[in-house]
Amino acid sequence: MPSTTPARAAAAAEPRSVYFDNAASTPLDPAVLDAMLPYLREHYGNASSQHSYGRRLRGVVETARRTIAGLLNAAPNEIFFTSGGTESDNYAAIGTIRTLGLTHAISSPLEHHAVLHTLQALERVGDIRLSYVRHDAQGRLDLNHLEELLTTHPRSFVSLMHANNELGNLNDVEAIGRLCVRHNAIFHTDTVQTMGHYRHNVRLLQNHFLVGSAHKFHGPKGTGFLYRSAGLPVQPLLHGGSQERHVRPGTENIPGIVGLAKALEIAYQGLDEHRRYVQGLKDQLIRRLQAEVEGVQFNGLSAEAEQSLYTILSVSLPPSPRNAELLSTLDLNRVAVSGGSACTSGDKAGSHVLSALGTDPDRATLRLSLSRYNTADEVEYAVAQIANLFRAELV
Ligand code: PLP
């Protein structure tokens, strides 16, 4: 890539707006929308009805289930449709702990709140004791500590994510799975950020649960699934009809389920190419930020290609009086990113992940998260906008 001065890059890309918040939600793939539209327009029945409208939709739901199962090398009866990642995480944790009468859970302070708050709520009502695996300043989990915890508390519920949604850090879920098997633990992995970005093969993993949320891989919002390994009995959280084999009652979101399956199918078809492309954009971002922003750092393992998710870069910016307006200034300049700061006591709005890592609260964090719809020009434009903020600071 030819080197471009920030001013020229900004001028060249002036009219564009840049969406670098794909870890929050991704744009819908037009082919996914096309697949969904007939189920919003023409096929409006209820999949539980006995007439032809209902029977057609029942077939559609089961086809989507087989598609997802096939991609994960799972059996269709191991896939349950839900409203997304949060519900799937809650289902796995609450359903398993209650059904199996587990009294101890192991997680990490770096987990998403969909897991952390769920387990903490169970601890508050006295259902479980919760232990946290230690991690280092980069967010690497201490698997020796996990083994110690599992030795002291066999048959625990273990919830450790595949990729961290703020840092992009990847956990070694194969190694964690082996430890869980050895200690007879139930292993749930929040795969919300990696579903559709890595190939998950449930026959090679030792997981009891994986989760998917369509809007993280160019599908619609409010639809997702839970993979639950066969043979694990788990009570429903909701009570009602017989949908999803009584496990998750409620009228099926047919357009959502169709879009979910289509989005995952497209993601798997293009996975290697998309991965190379997006990793290239991330490498460019790292290089250009290092060249243009003095004192830039990267949180956790975010800049380590082998140890982090290729869609997320967590950027740590030097202390500056302008850091408080960083996000809004970038937004005014048409660059959409997420922020983050370490929580200091009393500052509940801060990031629990950065706080757990002990990052300097005076440095600002930007989470830049990419997708296959982003371009190298957008990287140049965004870097120029970030660099300009620091340049303006100097004058
Ligand atoms: N888990 C992780 C790691 C996430 O990043 C998210 C969403 O950002 C969730 C769970 C929640 O997923 P959903 O938005 O589908 O409820």
TrEMBL record:
The answer to keyword Glycosyltransferase applying to this record is no
Q: Which GO terms describe its molecular function?
A: cysteine desulfurase activity; iron-sulfur cluster binding; metal ion binding
Its domain of life? Bacteria
* Swiss-Prot/TrEMBL cofactor(s): pyridoxal 5'-phosphate
The UniProt entry, under Pfam families, shows: Aminotran_5
InterPro entries named in the record:
Aminotrans_V_dom (IPR000192), Cysteine_dSase (IPR016454), PyrdxlP-dep_Trfase (IPR015424), PyrdxlP-dep_Trfase_major (IPR015421), PyrdxlP-dep_Trfase_small (IPR015422)
The record's annotation in Gene3D superfamilies points to: 1.10.260.50, Aspartate Aminotransferase, domain 1, Type I PLP-dependent aspartate aminotransferase-like (Major domain)
Give a yes or no for keyword Metal-binding in this entry: yes
Question: Catalysed reaction per UniProt?
Answer: (sulfur carrier)-H + L-cysteine = (sulfur carrier)-SH + L-alanine
Aminotransferase class V domain residues = 18-381
User: By its UniProt entry, which SUPFAM superfamilies does this protein fall under?
Assistant: PLP-dependent transferases
Alphabetized, the UniProt keywords read: Iron, Iron-sulfur, Metal-binding, Pyridoxal phosphate, Transferase
**UniProt family annotation:** Belongs to the class-V pyridoxal-phosphate-dependent aminotransferase family. NifS/IscS subfamily.
Q: What is this protein called?
A: Cysteine desulfurase
Q: Give the source species.
A: Hymenobacter gummosus
Lineage of this protein's species?
A: Bacteria, Pseudomonadati, Bacteroidota, Cytophagia, Cytophagales
